[in-house]
Each structure stands twice: as structure tokens, then as C-alpha cells.
């Protein structure tokens, strides 16, 4: 409870956010910029031209790559590191959603590192110097535009790197840029954002109880914005809400302070996504209700508290009943978003369950999660509930 907090991230939020790009390029003395994205939306939204104009304004050079995919692959990152070294890149810029941000973070950490960038994800090495990182947000939900985490996979092996040095130096957030995001991707991102408030809430190692109220209020805000988005995905006011919730929801300091964060849903989903290449939010929507239902049988307290305080259920029902209602509430919300809520709906059968359980528990030698740690057999039981 004694600490010093600082962050190097600056958020420019609202219409015209990208007009500040040249100022940031000057601030970080950028002479060669690498822009990473996926598809042609950067061109359709006018982002590409604005980036080109800003780089030209400061007299810099620009390299571009649009090959990022959901669940970003380390092979692309390796090739981008080679390109960045060849072009003497001194700032990495991402446009899009979490996959682009995580790719940019990985490249920025990998360029100064002498070994293979995958070492930074396996724990063999830690980042040293990191190139400056900028983000132009077009998809609210992941929170990666302000977070210290990047998630990357090699084959079916999905790993994460957490280090404050890879927090983007600046994030430019204009809600108009998310107008053309495909419905399914935005729905999945909203499901992902729900875990920003539940993973730290599901904890009984709590030093500061006021954080509960922040998390409850954040989840209420997300549920409200999510329902309004379902009713009218074109509403820019709703997208503004989602962008701001995304830019604040994954703040590990404020929302995780003084407690042990659960991460059960994220850890299992990373293995699910690595094995079956599902979008992160899709996996969240399938797994979270089943994890709650399973753990409710032995440790329902935190689930029941959330069910009472956010969803308004009667505390007289008892902790276990409230916990099961919470699972139903989340499942209904995810279904209303148009997301699958069963593994079978994603084409995932029981034959993959042991591989996921082995991967997330080290072949049964460890457990996953902190609120109620799950063994290998527990993980298989959760997947059975989710099928």
C-alpha cells in the first residue's frame, strides 16, 4: 500500500484526434515510422492519408503493413522487426484494434532486442529499450490502446507479454473511426471489455474496498452502452461511450489496486483462441458464464455480490442462487450481442478439451486463476459446461 505511480501514456480523445499526430512525431523525434494495420479500413477512413501527411510534415519516412490478423502471429512480427531495422524505424504506429496494437507493441520491443522476439513472451528475456508506440483507435473494447499487455501466438501457442514499457506513448481516439467496424467484431470487443470489470472484481484478496464501487459502476456503464449499441450500432454517442470505457477499463492500477486479480477467463480463453483461432471476445462470451457456474458451487461470494449490486437481484436468494443468476445474466447479454454462448456453436468439440486443459495447467502440474484456482480436471469440467 506504499507506492509511486506514473504513466507515459497520453490520450487525445474526440473528433480531430489525429490532427495531433504530427505534434507527437515531433515530440518523439520520429524520422522513420512503421504503420501496422489490417485490411483496407485505414484507407477508407482516411487514416492512411492523414498519417502520410503527418509524416511528410515532419520530414520523415513511412513504411506500411496491413497484414495483421486477429490473434496476431509472431511470424509477421518477426518480419516487421526485420523491416523496421532495415528502414531504421524509430516509432511504431498502429491503427485498428487490439491485434494491431499488440503487433506494434511487440515490434517496438523486438527491434532493440538482440534475440528472437518470442523470448519476450516465453519469459526467457525481458524488454530493454522499447521504441515509442502510437495508436490510432478504430475499435473500442480491448483496452490495449492504454494497457501494458500484448498477446501473440506462435502456431497454437498463445502467450502474453506484460511490461509497462510497452504501454503506448500516445493514443488518438476519434469515435467516428469505429463507424464501419463489422458488427461481430464490435460485439466481441464489448464482451472482452466486460472482463475489465469482472477479472479484478472476482477476488477475495482485497485491500481497498472502494475499488469494488469503481468496478461495479464501470460494469453498469458497459452494460448500458452495450445495450444501446445493440439497439443502434450507428449511434456515435454510444461509440463515444464505448471508446472511453475501453480507454479506462483496462487500467491495471486503478481497477486492480490492492487485490489479486482473477484472470481465469482470460487465461483459458488464450488457450482456446490459440488452439481454435477464435476471436478473443467470442471465447470470453462462451467461457465466462460456465466458469461462474462451476466455481459458484464452491465459492459463490463475489459472484453473488456482483449479481446483487449490478443486476439488482434479491440478496435473500442466497449466494449460490445469486451466482447462478449472474451467469445467466452475462450469458443473456452476450447472446443479445449476437455472440455464440456454447462451444459447439463455434464448431469446437470435446476432443479439444484435454489439450486446452493441459496447456493452461502445464499438463496438470499447476492451476489457473486466483479467485478459485482450477486444476486440469476443473478446466475440463468448465469446458463440458460450456459445450
UniProtKB/TrEMBL annotation:
InterPro entries on file: ADH_Fe/GldA, ADH_Fe_C, ADH_Fe_CS, BDH-like
One of the record's GO molecular function terms: methylglyoxal reductase (NADPH) (acetol producing) activity
UniProt superkingdom: Bacteria
PROSITE patterns, A to Z: ADH_IRON_2 (PS00060)
Pfam families: ADH_Fe_C, Fe-ADH
SUPFAM superfamilies xref list: Dehydroquinate synthase-like
Fe-containing alcohol dehydrogenase-like C-terminal domain boundaries: 197-384
Alcohol dehydrogenase iron-type/glycerol dehydrogenase GldA domain location: 10-175
Oxidoreductase in keyword set: yes
GO cellular component: cytosol
Oxidoreductase as UniProt keyword: yes
Protein keywords: Oxidoreductase
Protein name: Iron-containing alcohol dehydrogenase
Source species: Bifidobacterium vespertilionis
Amino acid at each position: 500500500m506504499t507506492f509511486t505511480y506514473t504513466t507515459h501514456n497520453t490520450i487525445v480523445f474526440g473528433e480531430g484526434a489525429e490532427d495531433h499526430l504530427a505534434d507527437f512525431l515531433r515530440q518523439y523525434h520520429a524520422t522513420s515510422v512503421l504503420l501496422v494495420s489490417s485490411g483496407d479500413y485505414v484507407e477508407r477512413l482516411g487514416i492512411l492519408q492523414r498519417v502520410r501527411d503527418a509524416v511528410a510534415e515532419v520530414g520523415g519516412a513511412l513504411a506500411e503493413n496491413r497484414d495483421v490478423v486477429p490473434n496476431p502471429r509472431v511470424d509477421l512480427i518477426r518480419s516487421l522487426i526485420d523491416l523496421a531495422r532495415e528502414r531504421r524505424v524509430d516509432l511504431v504506429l498502429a491503427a485498428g484494434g487490439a491485434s494491431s496494437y499488440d503487433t506494434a507493441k511487440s515490434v517496438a520491443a523486438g527491434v532493440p532486442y538482440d534475440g528472437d522476439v518470442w523470448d519476450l513472451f516465453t519469459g526467457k528475456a525481458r524488454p530493454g529499450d522499447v521504441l515509442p508506440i502510437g495508436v490510432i483507435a478504430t475499435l473500442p473494447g480491448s483496452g490495449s490502446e492504454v494497457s501494458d499487455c500484448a498477446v501473440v501466438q506462435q502456431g497454437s501457442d498463445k502467450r502474453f507479454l506484460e511490461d509497462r514499457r510497452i504501454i503506448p506513448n500516445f493514443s488518438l481516439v476519434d469515435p467516428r473511426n469505429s463507424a464501419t467496424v463489422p458488427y461481430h467484431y464490435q460485439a466481441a470487443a464489448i464482451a472482452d471489455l466486460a472482463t475489465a470489470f469482472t477479472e479484478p472484481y472476482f477476488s477475495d484478496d482485497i485491500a481497498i474496498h472502494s475499488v469494488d464501487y469503481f468496478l461495479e459502476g464501470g460494469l453498469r456503464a458497459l452494460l448500458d452502452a452495450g445495450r444501446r449499441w445493440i439497439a443502434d450500432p450507428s449511434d456515435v454517442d454510444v461509440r463515444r461511450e464505448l471508446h472511453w470505457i475501453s480507454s479506462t477499463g483496462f487500467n491495471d492500477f486503478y481497477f486492480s489496486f490492492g487485490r489479486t486479480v482473477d484472470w481465469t477467463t482470460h487465461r483459458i480463453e488464450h488457450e482456446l483462441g490459440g488452439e481454435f483461432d477464435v476471436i478473443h471476445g467470442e471465447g470470453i462470451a462462451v467461457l465466462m458464464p460456465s466458469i461462474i457456474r462451476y466455481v459458484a458451487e464452491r465459492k459463490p461470494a463475489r459472484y453473488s455480490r456482483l449479481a446483487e449490486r449490478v443486476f439488482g437481484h434479491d440478496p435473500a436468494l442466497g449466494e449460490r442462487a445469486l451466482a447462478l443468476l449472474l451467469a445467466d445474466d452475462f450469458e443473456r447479454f452476450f447472446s443479445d450481442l449476437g455472440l455464440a454462448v456454447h462451444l459447439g456453436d463455434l464448431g469446437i468439440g470435446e476432443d479439444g478439451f484435454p489439450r486446452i486443459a493441459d496447456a493452461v495447467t502445464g499438463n496438470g502440474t499447476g492451476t489457473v486463476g486466483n479467485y478459485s484456482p482450477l486444476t486440469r480436471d476443473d478446466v475440463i469440467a468448465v469446458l463440458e459446461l460450456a459445450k
